[in-house]
Design a protein that fits this description.
Blueprint lengths: L3 H4 L1 H16 L1 E2 L9 H7 L10 E2 L2 E2 L5 H17 L7 E4 L5 H12 L5 E3 L22 H5 L1 E2 L4 E2 L4 E2 L1 H11 L3 E4 L10 H11 L2 E5 L4 H5 L12 E5 L10 E6 L8 H13 L5 H13 L3 H23 L3 E2 L8 E5 L7 H10 L2 E2 L1 E3 L12 E5 L1 H5 L4 H25 L2 H10 L6 H6 L1
Parallel strand pairs: 1-15, 5-6, 5-9, 9-10, 10-11
Antiparallel strand pairs: 2-3, 4-12, 7-8, 11-12, 13-14, 14-17, 16-17
Bound molecules: pyridoxal-5'-phosphate.
Pyridoxal-5'-phosphate binds next to helix 5.
Family: Belongs to the SHMT family.
GO cellular component, one term: mitochondrion
Function: Interconversion of serine and glycine.
């Protein structure tokens, strides 16, 4: 049996290049992180060889005594990491990622074409919460369910709860989803709960982006108010790529969430669990209970605030004016440029971040902002000082983008041509002859 370098030098070389890219750049994508060597070891282990359809003690394959032990350990650690009482909450650790986890919840508690409400994609929501254009139902969530988005108040950059309440009263959704991919503030869970109760809807939180911050109690706790909480495991939580679904054990709106959700995961939508991922997740969830992890999450938030502070000093407009979590959303439209151009220029300078739509954008193709996240570089030991320097680097990139846009638009050359074409410049005659 050969190691990768011997068995497949071509793939080894690609991995080496990607590793170098990751370590030589400033990684500011809000949904990315660097997981630990211990997690990597579990993910790259023999656990990947095993089939184990079903749940611990109820498998469709033999040889699962250790896999059962692992999954039970992972479940226990998941509940402990989020400070949950095992009598009140359960968890399924098998979802393959965040989008499948969300679709599994919908499959569990909704009938096809039931109504749901999530934050609009261009306002920071996620595709898996539903998205359609006037021409096309884009997200599978909008193909199989009727989705009506709620939005931000464009003047404040905060969720427009009043409008959500009015729309929910008319639309009467069966499920309301909190959570976002690009929202720098906490959700008002008590308000969302009230709205859900008033219309008889389930309330779900997709905490994918902020699950590490929730585990460390540095943001508001969604478990106090929601019936179901989903998450990815590879963002601020710093685990392997995967997903989890937490559910209340007592029936909600007459539905036994435990059996409905477990059945939706398997046999509903998935087959064999990825046991190597569950192994890595168990490692991550143990670490998530340590004082070191809490200190890390506090630093993620402080770093993000330092970044926001410096950007505001430099004159930038931030959606909602700042940040309570791990990301800032910069509105570049006042500078006459867009996020796509800035993303490209910064990419050339080894600074990796996302173009992102901002409230009020006319086109989704040319989004007016950028999203900047602090989790990954905080893992690499960056503090407020380095994040202040990052703001200065980004500023430099933005200035270059503004100049490059001026040049690329041809306006500088047009000015120049006007001069060479003037009557007192003889070139004009020569050219027309
Ligand atoms: N939910 C939210 C809020 C997300 O931001 C994301 C991904 O960015 C997902 C779900 C989907 O996760 P995955 O890419 O693992 O399917």
């Amino acid at each position: 049996d050969h190691g990768l370098s011997e068995a497949d030098p071509e793939v080894r070389a690609i991995i080496n290049k990607e590793k170098e890219r990751q370590f030589k750049s400033l990684e500011l994508i809000a949904s990315e992180n660097f997981t630990s060597r211990a997690v990597m070891e579990a993910v790259g282990s023999c656990l990947t060889n095993k089939y184990s359809e079903g749940l611990p003690g109820k498998r469709y394959y033999g040889g699962n005594e250790y896999i059962d032990e692992l999954e039970i350990l992972c479940q226990k650690r998941a509940l402990a990491a989020f400070h949950l009482d095992e009598n009140k909450w359960g968890v399924n650790v098998q979802p393959l990622s965040g989008s499948p986890a969300n679709f599994e919840v919908y499959t569990a508690i909704l009938n096809p074409h039931d109504r749901i409400m999530g934050l609009d994609l261009p306002h920071g929501g996620h595709l898996s919460h539903g998205f359609m254009t006037p021409k096309r139902r884009v997200s599978g969530t909008s193909i199989y369910f009727e989705s009506m988005p709620y939005r931000l108040d464009e003047s404040t950059g905060l969720v427009d709860y009043d409008m959500l309440e009015k729309t929910a009263t008319l639309f009467r959704p069966k499920l309301i989803i909190c959570g976002a991919s690009a929202y720098p503030r906490d959700f008002d869970y008590p308000r969302m709960r009230k709205i859900a109760d008033a219309v008889g809807a389930f309330l779900m939180m997709d905490m994918a982006h902020i699950s590490g911050l929730v585990a460390a109690s540095v943001v508001a706790d969604p478990f106090e108010y929601c019936d179901i909480v989903t998450t990815t495991t590879h963002k601020s939580l710093r685990g392997p790529r995967g997903g989890m679904i937490f559910f209340k054990k007592d029936p909600v709106l007459g539905v036994d969430l435990e059996s409905a959700i477990n059945n939706a995961v398997f046999p509903g939508l998935q087959g064999g669990p990825h046991n190597h991922t569950i192994g890595g997740l168990a490692v991550c969830l143990q670490h998530a209970q340590s004082p070191e992890f809490k200190a890390y999450q506090n630093q993620v938030v402080s770093n993000c605030r330092a970044l926001a502070r410096r950007l505001v000093e430099l004159g930038y407009t931030l959606v909602s004016g700042g940040s309570d979590n791990h990301l800032v959303l910069v509105d570049l439209r006042p500078l006459g440029i867009d996020g796509a151009r800035v993303e490209k220029i910064l990419d050339m300078a080894s600074i990796t971040l996302n173009k992102n739509s901002v409230p009020g954008d006319k086109s989704a193709l040319v989004p007016g902002g950028i999203r900047i996240g602090s989790p990954a570089m905080t893992t690499r030991g960056f503090t407020e000082k380095e994040f202040t320097a990052i703001a200065d680097f980004i500023h430099e990139g933005v200035q270059i983008t503004i100049e490059a846009k001026g040049l690329a638009s041809g306006s500088k050359v047009q000015e120049f041509l006007k001069f060479v074409s003037s009557p007192d410049f003889p070139l004009t005659d020569k050219v027309s002859n």
